[in-house]
Amino acid sequence: MDLVQFLKNRLTEDEAIATAPTKATWATAEWRFAEVDGDPIVDLGTNHLTRVSSLNEQEMQHIARHDPARVLAEVAAKRDLLSRYENPEASEALPPSMNRLTASVERAVLDLVFRYLALPYADHPDYSDSWRP
């Protein structure tokens, strides 16, 4: 498996996990860290996570910050980067040789970016240490 396919697979997994909890439209969901009667909560719209759940304030802030809508936005942004690797920018105003050079440089830069994007998945069994930046 190559690095690009590895990242595509991880993004598909991240997307599936982000959309699994509910059928809600996460793009419009607004999770937030708040307080109710002086107690910190993570407001999930119809549900609340409170200290009763054994989560501390920092854990609840983390959950509110990394909600499914944000995960899905990150997945979309990373997929856009991956598509740039497969379809580098070209210009009809440039000769084919220049477009090939530009594509080569763009792919080299993106290859390094992808190596860093893959690092959080280094504990995955399909991760290859040869991808480390």
Describe the overall structure.
By secondary structure, the protein is mainly alpha-helical. The protein is 51% helix and 10% strand. The protein is built from four helices and three strands; from the N terminus they run αβββααα. It has a three-stranded antiparallel beta sheet. Helix 1 packs antiparallel against helix 3 (68-86), helix 1 crosses helix 4 (96-118) and helix 3 runs antiparallel to helix 4 (96-118). The longest helix is centred in the last third of the chain and has 23 residues, at 96-118. The chain is elongated, with a radius of gyration of 20 Å. The protein starts with a helix and ends in a 15-residue tail after the last helix.
What can be said about this structure in brief?
β2 and β3 (48-50) form a beta hairpin. The chain is elongated and about 65 Å long. It has helices spanning 3-19, 57-65, 68-86, 96-118; strands at residues 32-36, 39-43, 48-50.
